Amino acid sequence: MTEHDDGSLDATARVVDPATTDDERRIEAALRPRRLADFPGQRRVRDQLGLVLEAARRRESPPDHVLLSGPPGLGKTTLAMIIAAELEQPMRITSGPAIQHAGDLAAVLSSLAEGEVLFVDEIHRMARPAEEMLYLAMEDFRVDVIVGKGPGATAIPLELPPFTVVGATTRAGLLPAPLRDRFGFTGHLDYYATEDLQLILTRSAGLLEIESTREGIHEIASRSRGTPRIANRLLRRVRDWAQVHGQHVVDQEAALVALELFDVDKQGLDRLDRAVLEALCKRFGGGPVGLSTLAVAVGEEPDTVETVAEPYLVREGYIVRTPRGRSASRTAWQHLGLTPPTPVAGQDHLPLGDQPRRFDH
Ligand SMILES: Nc1ncnc2c1ncn2[C@@H]1O[C@H](COP(=O)(O)OP(=O)(O)OP(=O)(O)O)[C@@H](O)[C@H]1O
Ligand SMILES: [Mg+2]
């Protein structure tokens, strides 16, 4: 995983390109839409958020706190920036891992101006005392600043001007309920439809001055795991391939060859996805197997397998999450060109939504 300057971790960096450079990050920033109206896809979240912001504008007061959740690369940071832009307010950026002491957070909170937007990325990774301070501040616009140490320490209450917290998380389930409840609006981002990714890619190609054909864009869009960050990266890799091969148009042929070269298969699964499926089918006979065992088998952190690879594999029906662990579906066996054993493990289980929330770890 790549660590950003602000301490946040970019979990998708390795999926397509293990060596994410500053240059890549700059390009990513340049490709972010700036306004809600320019943000394709996520129609529901966009409409809901549009309403929340418009109502706040009419009331001339800061909107409720907003929580954005969803897998990496779907636009949480982008939307946070859009919220600040739509409110015409400056945005302060911090992240859970950067706030390890309540004092770190007190310093940030006490310097906020009225109406400002405080973006807390990876909010589920904040230290517990800071979490408590944050949810009290979100509710009462007040922090207790501790002066002194030990038994002589005193808490001095400090009033804060109203502000808006925008939290982002890939793991909403890990947020403690009191903190989650302080958010007046939660937007769940889901994987994008191919048509939306085509819109995003066409726009990106324009901004990066990449000539492309509709078929080329469609090929990339349909193999980007429903994720704009991956789509934009693949576009640049296909462009690289085209340039090196003396052609200046990103067309279907360039996309087909380049995506193959970068280990993105027909269904858009990348190396990590396939490693997970292969471990599950070949080493564990299709499961069920616990997350940490599976992660060890593919040489990754359990968190990476759970937040980066698994959500998409579950959504596309390759993996079934059961109370006893992860199981391969018939689709997974077929995708690897293997014959599934009969009956396929886990097939008698309910889909994810009907499962209890916590699973083995
Ligand atoms: N709806 C969208 N339209 C156009 N581009 C988008 C959209 N959503 C995301 N992107 C692009 O994808 C990239 C990743 O988006 P973003 O950084 O907002 O994701 P994220 O959800 O914050 O990911 P992470 O969980 O890793 O922090 C951005 O650089 C942006 O260019
Ligand atoms: Mg982000």
Automatic annotation (TrEMBL):
<keyword id="KW-0234">DNA repair</keyword>
<keyword id="KW-0547">Nucleotide-binding</keyword>
<feature type="binding site">
    <location>
        <position position="182"/>
    </location>
    <ligand>
        <name>ATP</name>
    </ligand>
</feature>
<dbReference type="Pfam" id="PF05491">
    <property type="entry name" value="WHD_RuvB"/>
</dbReference>
<dbReference type="InterPro" id="IPR041445">
    <property type="entry name" value="AAA_lid_4"/>
</dbReference>
<feature type="domain" description="AAA+ ATPase">
    <location>
        <begin position="62"/>
        <end position="195"/>
    </location>
</feature>
<dbReference type="Pfam" id="PF17864">
    <property type="entry name" value="AAA_lid_4"/>
</dbReference>
<keyword id="KW-0233">DNA recombination</keyword>
<dbReference type="InterPro" id="IPR008823">
    <property type="entry name" value="RuvB_wg_C"/>
</dbReference>
<comment type="subunit">
    <text>Homohexamer. Forms an RuvA(8)-RuvB(12)-Holliday junction (HJ) complex. HJ DNA is sandwiched between 2 RuvA tetramers; dsDNA enters through RuvA and exits via RuvB. An RuvB hexamer assembles on each DNA strand where it exits the tetramer. Each RuvB hexamer is contacted by two RuvA subunits (via domain III) on 2 adjacent RuvB subunits; this complex drives branch migration. In the full resolvosome a probable DNA-RuvA(4)-RuvB(12)-RuvC(2) complex forms which resolves the HJ.</text>
</comment>
<dbReference type="GO" id="GO:0005524">
    <property type="term" value="F:ATP binding"/>
</dbReference>
<keyword id="KW-0378">Hydrolase</keyword>
<dbReference type="InterPro" id="IPR003593">
    <property type="entry name" value="AAA+_ATPase"/>
</dbReference>
<feature type="region of interest" description="Disordered">
    <location>
        <begin position="1"/>
        <end position="26"/>
    </location>
</feature>
<feature type="binding site">
    <location>
        <position position="192"/>
    </location>
    <ligand>
        <name>ATP</name>
    </ligand>
</feature>
<dbReference type="InterPro" id="IPR008824">
    <property type="entry name" value="RuvB-like_N"/>
</dbReference>
<feature type="binding site">
    <location>
        <position position="78"/>
    </location>
    <ligand>
        <name>ATP</name>
    </ligand>
</feature>
<keyword id="KW-0238">DNA-binding</keyword>
<feature type="binding site">
    <location>
        <position position="31"/>
    </location>
    <ligand>
        <name>ATP</name>
    </ligand>
</feature>
<dbReference type="InterPro" id="IPR036390">
    <property type="entry name" value="WH_DNA-bd_sf"/>
</dbReference>
<feature type="binding site">
    <location>
        <position position="326"/>
    </location>
    <ligand>
        <name>DNA</name>
    </ligand>
</feature>
<dbReference type="GO" id="GO:0000400">
    <property type="term" value="F:four-way junction DNA binding"/>
</dbReference>
<dbReference type="GO" id="GO:0005737">
    <property type="term" value="C:cytoplasm"/>
</dbReference>
<dbReference type="InterPro" id="IPR036388">
    <property type="entry name" value="WH-like_DNA-bd_sf"/>
</dbReference>
<feature type="binding site">
    <location>
        <position position="321"/>
    </location>
    <ligand>
        <name>DNA</name>
    </ligand>
</feature>
<feature type="region of interest" description="Disordered">
    <location>
        <begin position="336"/>
        <end position="361"/>
    </location>
</feature>
<feature type="binding site">
    <location>
        <begin position="139"/>
        <end position="141"/>
    </location>
    <ligand>
        <name>ATP</name>
    </ligand>
</feature>
<feature type="binding site">
    <location>
        <position position="77"/>
    </location>
    <ligand>
        <name>ATP</name>
    </ligand>
</feature>
<feature type="binding site">
    <location>
        <position position="32"/>
    </location>
    <ligand>
        <name>ATP</name>
    </ligand>
</feature>
<comment type="function">
    <text>The RuvA-RuvB-RuvC complex processes Holliday junction (HJ) DNA during genetic recombination and DNA repair, while the RuvA-RuvB complex plays an important role in the rescue of blocked DNA replication forks via replication fork reversal (RFR). RuvA specifically binds to HJ cruciform DNA, conferring on it an open structure. The RuvB hexamer acts as an ATP-dependent pump, pulling dsDNA into and through the RuvAB complex. RuvB forms 2 homohexamers on either side of HJ DNA bound by 1 or 2 RuvA tetramers; 4 subunits per hexamer contact DNA at a time.</text>
</comment>
<keyword id="KW-0067">ATP-binding</keyword>
<dbReference type="Pfam" id="PF05496">
    <property type="entry name" value="RuvB_N"/>
</dbReference>
<dbReference type="GO" id="GO:0006310">
    <property type="term" value="P:DNA recombination"/>
</dbReference>
<feature type="binding site">
    <location>
        <position position="73"/>
    </location>
    <ligand>
        <name>ATP</name>
    </ligand>
</feature>
<comment type="similarity">
    <text>Belongs to the RuvB family.</text>
</comment>
<dbReference type="GO" id="GO:0016887">
    <property type="term" value="F:ATP hydrolysis activity"/>
</dbReference>
<dbReference type="InterPro" id="IPR004605">
    <property type="entry name" value="DNA_helicase_Holl-junc_RuvB"/>
</dbReference>
<dbReference type="GO" id="GO:0048476">
    <property type="term" value="C:Holliday junction resolvase complex"/>
</dbReference>
<keyword id="KW-0963">Cytoplasm</keyword>
<dbReference type="GO" id="GO:0009378">
    <property type="term" value="F:four-way junction helicase activity"/>
</dbReference>
<feature type="binding site">
    <location>
        <position position="77"/>
    </location>
    <ligand>
        <name>Mg(2+)</name>
    </ligand>
</feature>
<keyword id="KW-0347">Helicase</keyword>
